[in-house]
Design brief:
heterodimer; A: about 140 residues; about 0% strand; B: about 110 residues; mainly alpha
């Protein structure tokens, strides 16, 4: 059981060949999470870029609070993911485990604000869309 | 396993808050889905993708509550957490993209803005 838990919490328990592969790229495989974290950051950039492109193509949409809220939420969340990725990269490319309680607070605080705004915007809009569907279907 | 110092309470509160935001959003979305299904109305495919995404997001945030206790973004625990978060965010953003496309198609705007 203990060896299983070690594997779960410490990737240092991973097979040696994996560490060798990572080491050849200058990355500690103990922090492979930075790869997923980087992908999260890229996702934010893509969806943020699509949204900005949409707003530029249809400037009238800027009058809709929904799209501006989304953009703001994605911005906050992206900054949060950037700090998170930076922290993980400190461990992945450094020689010691990096951890900062203050930065963790920033990550979670920005994520709270960002995802709070995004989820509020989507849920309120989709609630409206679905309730509008109910009204129109009951009216017909 | 080595001993870890107790995590600061503030960090735990912040992590739990993010989890609760995602979990409440999941419950709200699920509630609407259930409400419409018992009324034989169904929900749009955005909603299904969105709810599935928020579920994965909430799951990842629950797992992330334990990260300050480990004092490290290290190991398979964090890898699984980040991968789950990646799946959740991807689904949320896909539903968002589909919604934006449909919204623009259903609300055509003139180039002159009039």
């Amino acid at each position: 059981m203990e060896s299983f838990l070690n594997l779960f919490f410490y990737a240092d328990s991973l097979p040696q060949f994996l560490h060798t592969v990572g080491g050849s790229w200058g990355v500690r495989m103990a922090c492979m999470c930075s790869v997923a974290n980087f992908a999260n950051l890229v996702l934010h950039v893509i969806i943020g870029g699509v949204l900005i492109g949409l707003l530029f193509a249809h400037r009238e949409l800027m009058k809709d609070k929904f799209f501006l809220l989304l953009l703001m939420g994605i911005g906050f969340s992206a900054v949060s993911k950037f700090i998170d990725w930076w922290m993980n990269m400190q461990t992945a490319t450094g020689t010691t485990v990096y951890w900062s309680n203050n930065l963790d607070l920033w990550v979670e605080g920005l994520q709270f604000i960002g995802m709070g705004i995004i989820l509020y915007a989507i849920i309120s809009k989709l609630f409206y869309v679905h309730h509008a569907g109910i009204s129109s279907s009951s009216a017909s | 396993m080595p001993e870890f110092p107790p995590p600061p309470l503030l960090n735990i509160i912040f992590h739990v808050s993010v989890f609760l935001v995602a979990f409440v959003a999941f419950l709200l979305g699920l509630g609407l889905w259930y409400n419409r299904s018992i009324n034989h109305l169904g929900v749009s495919h955005y909603w299904r993708i969105f709810i599935t995404g928020v579920f994965f997001y909430a799951l990842a945030e629950f797992s992330d509550i334990f990260t300050p206790g480990l004092t490290a973004s290290l190991g398979v625990h964090n890898l699984i957490t980040e991968m789950t978060l990646l799946v959740g965010l991807a689904l949320i953003f896909v539903s968002l993209y589909q919604f934006m496309k449909d919204y623009v198609a259903q609300h055509p705007v003139s180039k002159s803005g009039s």
